[in-house]
Amino acid sequence: MKKNVFIRLLSIAMVLMIMIAFTGCGGKTDANASAGAQGGTYEIRISACNSLDHPQTLGLDVMKKYIEAETQGKVKVSIYPNSQLGAEVESVEQVKNGTLEMATASIGPITTFQKKFQVLDIPFLFENYEQAWAVCDSKVGTDLMKTLEESGLKGLAYMENGFRHVTNNVKPINTIDDFKGLKIRTMQAPMHMANFTALGANPTPVPWSELYMAMSQKIVDGQENPLANIWELKMNEVQKYVSLTGHIYDAMPLVTNLKWFNSLPADYQRIIEKGAILGQNYSRFINANRESMLADKLTEKGMQVNSLKPEALAAIKAVSQPVVADKVKAEIGADFVEAFLQGIDAVKADTVKSVE
Prior knowledge:
- 52% of the residues lie in helices and 18% in strands.
- The protein contains 14 helices and nine strands.
- Helix 3 links the parallel strand 1 (42-47) and strand 2 (75-80).
């Protein structure tokens, strides 16, 4: 999980330069044309399940500022954190029904509206963030996002949530045998549950809003979430061990109502799409650069944080990945899954091209 600091800083600098370019050049022309073309104003309400300090919500704030600046205030963006407008599935349902403009949700809840997103629930698809980002932004990732239109939704960006890790109160996870018998909280996501069942654990769905209480009352032994969520929910108060399994990369698609979006002036549509990508990239870099700090902070708070040896992760992958992949193929079709996996292989091949 260690990252090259120079590369990270360079990446952030590039994002900031892009933001400056957007706000200083083409976007202004669109906004000025909009202001002269129509006098109407629009409101975008965005539901988010995390706090205002979470990477995905910080990304949404970048998007908000960009959109409001580029439309000269004609489009007002309001972010509602901490599930104020409803939990993830409920919020996306509101977007689908047209009673809410936008929402973010983890991949698990998104599969409720488009099963093809279960392909991202296959464990151990990616070795690092760069691979995950490249695939999400490649043709297979953007094609996957387009499938949301079948449900009346439009995917604007993959906001960041991060790699999911396991916490528990019994023992650190060092080998596959350490999963056996653990009661692990998962989202109501069939493939997440299949993953932990294959590893010998007892997956137990618990809503995010009830998770802290479930851990404090020992209804579950542990749970799995990205470090940002582990920190945000103060799991150090009710959990002892953090094992950096990184078993699933979990993005948070930002979705809007397709019919509503298509009803907007074309120049506003372009501004919103640009703002969403800026927010996406910002949330990614914030999360990736924050993770090593969070591991240290959780240690300071009394949690034991451990990394798994490569051979241990390989053994876990060998057991869980085929089981989940077969279930996903049965749900959404082997051809779609194979095409997505080939897209991942293509990204990995391009990464090492000419340097092997």
